[in-house]
Amino acid sequence: MREPSRDKGRLEDIVCYAENVLSFVQGKTFEEFISDKLLYFAVLKNV
Asked: Can you tell me the mean pLDDT for 34-43?
């Protein structure tokens, strides 16, 4: 059985990464997203 504290930490990490992605793409169009390699790879790294 997993340790609940480790599970909580993993879930907190997932939430943090999701918030990162949302902040990276906020206000961007899909075309801007796919044409910006730095943004694309930053999102990919956080997913």
From this structure: 97
- R_g (Cα) of the chain, nearest Å: 14
Domain extent for 24: 4-46
* pTM for this model (two decimals): 0.78
Q: Which of 33, 1, 31, 8 is CA-nearest to residue 42?
A: 33
Q: Which two tokens stand for residue 30?
A: 């899909």
For residues 11 and 24, what is the distance between their CA atoms, to the nearest angstrom? 20
Backbone angles phi, psi at 8, to 5 degrees: -60, -40
Domain count, the chain: 1
